[in-house]
Amino acid sequence: MEKIMSITIWVLLFILGSCIYSFLNVIIYRAPKKMNFIKGRSICPACGHTLKAWDLVPVLSYMALRGKCRYCKEKIGIRDTLIEIAGGIIAVICAWHFQDAPIEGVVVFAFISILMVVTWTDIDTMEIPDGCHIAIAVLAVISFIISAAILHGANEYTVTGVKLASRIIGMLCISMPMLIMALALPGAFGGGDIKLMMAGGLFLGWKLTVVAAVLALLTGGLWGILLLITKKKGRKEHFAFGPFLCAGMALAIFFGEALVGWYMGFLQF
Ligand SMILES: [Zn+2]
Q1: From the CA of 89, how far away is ligand 1's center (Å)?
Q2: Comparing C-alpha atoms, which of 223, 226, 184, 177 is closest to residue 201?
Q3: How many CB atoms lie within 10 A of CB 268?
Q4: Distance from the CA of 185 to the CA of which of 43, 60, 154, 249 falls in 20 to 30 A?
Q5: What's the pLDDT tens digit per position in 174-217?
Q6: Are 108 and 98 contacting, i.e. CB atoms less than 8 angstroms apart?
């Protein structure tokens, strides 16, 4: 019985995560078009037919409809469904990783959710809306208030345990070098990337922000080389760097402490 209960909880968490990310898909689609994402029914982008509730069930509707619009039979892209599945998995990972600190888990889930919107909006439009930076900054303030209100053995590697000084250094330690590089080499980074690292640094504190930047440079650099080799993009063209910054920040939360420990150990030999 206990086992069934615990399986049920994980399944419910997965469903909750995928429902929240289903709503994020609406924001990703509508925000760049300046559409209201609270009001207004969802429509099929191909035929304009208003979609019913049973067309919008995360993951399941896509499977039941075999990836086609019920009304015009136009193919529906699989991206939204993959984002919903990712939402379910991220909810489960956050709950599992932060079993002993559930508030931390909720804050991290909220942060990664904003990063998901940043990632896909940047890929779609090559821009990051200011609303995302503001949302991350607000979350940083909330997590700072939480850490002041409750002490749960949090350290510099937990996002609710980051001290104020570390947050302020974090806000500047990566964004300022990026700003200088952007001024020296026009087009090196977009303003959105710089603001993202300011807000992200305020949230993560300086240690995780540095880890995030290193991970972003490594993965983004590899991606850039891959694009050059496969000749998908020329040397002068740009690709969205925001997704790599987002991936770096998300990975830093889960692996930052271990990576720093590994690197420090590596230096001693
Ligand atoms: Zn349709």
Answers
A1: 29
A2: 177
A3: 5
A4: 249
A5: 999 999 999 998 877 889 999 999 999 999 999 999 999 999 99
A6: yes
Instruction: Tell me the whole-structure pTM to 2 decimals.
Output: 0.91
- Exposed e or buried b for every residue in 174-196, given b needs 16+ CB within 10 A? bbeebbeebeeeeeebbebbbbb
Q: Which two tokens stand for residue 245?
A: 């910054």
What residues have a C-beta under 5 A from ligand 1, the ion?
Answer: 44, 46-47, 69, 71-72, 74
Q: CA distances (Å), 254 to each of 143, 230, 257, 267, in order?
A: 17, 32, 8, 22
pLDDT, tens digit (0-9, with 9 covering 90-100), for 104-158? 899 999 999 999 999 999 999 999 999 999 999 999 999 988 877 765 555 666 7
Token representation of residue 134:
């503001």
For residue 34, the CA-to-ligand 1 centroid distance in Å is 22
d(CA 15, CA 25): 15
Q: Which two tokens stand for residue 132?
A: 């995302």
